[in-house]
Specification:
α2 (34-48) runs antiparallel to α7 (128-176) and α5 (86-104) crosses α7 (128-176). The chain is an all-alpha fold. It is built from seven helices and no strands. It has one domain. The chain is globular and about 70 Å long. The N and C termini lie far apart (47 Å).
């Protein structure tokens, strides 16, 4: 039986670096229009900021079918929402949503303050509606901002890498011929 290697910080960092690099290469090598890839990526990021856990891939697919975009790019970029990042996304959504509700004068009857340190299942179950509504208000602002940033970044990344690849291919053809 193979020996399991210990999870050292260096190994974790190497695995994470490989994971990110692998998915960036997959995005780069998609044979679709850069705008479609960027739009799909934006939908994946958009959905990651919503509290609809378990439905992210379905929502990505629906958004790409309705509004266009690469489904594969949306699935890859929806990985930005994962168990390590969801607490931060939802905390930011909740904080912004609470501020928006307070500014608009929308009353909140809450007995639970949401914080990452004091987060418990009981608090969520007892005060679910008072937590989900501010998260949805915050997601209305955060998701489009993150998606717009993701669209622009992905588009520039795909354009730049394709331009570099074409340049390398041209140099190789000049050096070695068309064979």
């Amino acid at each position: 039986m193979a020996e399991i290697k210990p999870a050292t910080p260096e190994r974790k960092k190497r695995v994470l670096k490989h994971f990110v690099r692998y998915h960036l290469i997959r995005l780069h090598r998609l044979a679709e229009d850069p705008k479609a890839i960027a739009l799909g990526s934006a939908w994946g990021i958009f959905v990651s900021f919503t509290p609809f856990l378990g439905f992210h891939l379905i929502l990505c697919t629906l958004m790409c079918i309705i509004f266009g975009g690469s489904k594969l790019a949306s699935w890859i970029s929806s990985l930005i929402g994962n168990p390590a990042t969801f607490p931060f996304f939802f905390w930011a959504d909740y904080t912004l949503g609470g501020w928006i509700m307070k500014t608009l004068g929308i009353a909140r009857n809450t007995t639970t303050e949401l914080s990452i340190e004091g987060l418990s299942f009981e608090a969520l179950a007892n005060d679910m509606s008072n937590i989900i509504v501010p998260i949805l208000f915050g997601a209305v602002i955060m998701a489009p901002l993150a998606a717009a940033t993701g669209y622009w970044t992905t588009y520039k990344f795909v354009e730049l890498t394709r331009h570099r690849r074409m340049k390398r291919m041209k140099l190789a053809r000049e050096k070695y011929g068309n064979a």
